[in-house]
Automatic annotation (TrEMBL):
Listed PANTHER family: NADH-UBIQUINONE OXIDOREDUCTASE CHAIN 3 (PTHR11058)
Swiss-Prot/TrEMBL keywords: Electron transport, Membrane, Mitochondrion, NAD, Respiratory chain, Translocase, Transmembrane, Transmembrane helix, Transport, Ubiquinone
Pfam hit, one: Oxidored_q4
Record gene name: ND3
Stored InterPro entries: NADH_UbQ/plastoQ_OxRdtase_su3, NDAH_ubi_oxred_su3_sf
Assigned protein family: Belongs to the complex I subunit 3 family.
Organism phylogeny: Eukaryota, Metazoa, Spiralia, Lophotrochozoa, Mollusca
Organism expressing this protein natively: Spirula spirula
Name recorded for this polypeptide: NADH-ubiquinone oxidoreductase chain 3
Catalytic activity: a ubiquinone + NADH + 5 H(+)(in) = a ubiquinol + NAD(+) + 4 H(+)(out)
Amino acid sequence: MMTILIYLFILVFVNFILLFLGLIINKRSYMDREKNSPFECGFDPSTHTRTPFSMRFFLLAVIFLIFDVEIILLMPLTMNIMNSNTHWPLTGSMMFLMILLMGLFHEWNQGSLNWMK
């Protein structure tokens, strides 16, 4: 029990030393106008807040989120394909990719992604 308390004390002491050194060494300016102004997704915050938002940025963000989630779903499939004795993980991943690509082509042909052409 005593060794745990000694380790805890050493860790807290090292953390305070590092925090104190960081506060002494930093060269941040707190009076900088640019750093104190809010940042609103690339728009100038002094303009009117209800300006219309471009659909290009919205669609790009949605496509990024969809493919980001799809990549997270595909990552474990490689290990399943390598460790499996059957063809089902490979078949399932191919069907998943085909559905994903058909959805992308459908969106492209519907005109929502005309800006990408």
